[in-house]
Amino acid sequence: MADLRPLIAGNWKMNGLREESLALAASLKARAAASGGFSCDILVCPPFTVLHDVGRVLRDSPIRLGAQDCHDAAPGAHTGDIAAAMLKDAGCSFVILGHSERRNGHGESDALVRRKAAAALGAGLSVIVCVGETEAERDKGLTFDVIARQVEASLPAGATPANTAIAYEPVWAIGSGRTPGESEIAAAHRQIGAALARAAGGASFRILYGGSVKADNAAAILRIAEVNGALVGGASLKAGDFWTIVETCP
Ligand code: PGA
Questions:
Q1: Is 166 inside a domain boundary?
Q2: Which end of the chain is more exposed for a tag (fewer CB within 10 A), N or C?
Q3: How many angstroms separate the alpha carbon of residue 84 from the centre of ligand 1?
């Protein structure tokens, strides 16, 4: 797994009015242009309302555009929802699916995440499918069971390493400033790798770590052999911090 090109993805969540979003994107683009090189793929996932404008700023830069969710159906009568084809049309090449804030805040099941992922792949998007245990599940020793089940039940037919990455995001680590130990992350990623092998026939998928990745802990996390990148929330809203994480990539 260590030979996969890492992916550093910024999840802006429900943050970013137009002006600050464009300024953040412009700052990232300038940092990319000034950089002597980096060894990862870079993605930002702004809210729907600024996708198109952020995409215009990022044009002619190596930074790719993604969204944070999509509906599982084709365009049609679904008030308030966004179809995968619309994300593609807005300039996205990726979509995050199954984030715990969707699973827990919107009752999204593994089956729904799988249908959404199938719709996204069908629209020509790549997907980042998120999995991770809650603190209560961790305390009961269920971490491996939960993440294996989520991977096997959320992955759609047609998922390949070229169009799908998994993000391991312990729910208790998101936004909390707490992270699992390095050996715990490595072990969880190995479990996910084993589940991927059962679900998708042994190919090597990128497995990102997410949950309180910051400029000052990214180096230790990204050096773990089983980690192929990071899904970054809060620290992706500050261009300097996000870029430090990008440049930390081994
Ligand atoms: P965090 O969020 O980096 O703010 O913990 C990560 C995520 O939820 O994707």
A1: yes
A2: C
A3: 23
User: In total, how many domains does the chain have?
Assistant: 1
| 169 among known catalytic residues | yes
Q: Is residue 44 a part of any domain in this protein?
A: yes
Catalytic member of 101, 108, 169, 247? 169
- Whole-structure pTM value: 0.97
User: What's residue 83's pLDDT?
Assistant: 98
How far is Cα 236 from Cα 113, in angstroms, rounded to an integer? Answer: 24
The CATH code of the domain that includes 169 is 3.20.20.70
Q: Is the pLDDT of residue 202 over 70?
A: no
Query: For position 219, what pLDDT does the model report?
Result: 97
Q: Residue 99 catalytic? A: yes
Residues near 75 by Cβ (< 8 Å), separated by ≥ 6?
83, 85, 86
Q: What is the pLDDT of residue 2?
A: 43
Query: Which residue CA neighbors atom 9 of ligand 1 most closely?
Result: 233
DSSP string, 21-35: HHHHHHHHHHHHHH-
Tell me, using a 6 A CB cutoff, whether residue 212 lines ligand 1: yes
Provide the mean pLDDT of the chain: 96
Q: Which domain holds residue 113?
A: 7-31+38-213+230-245
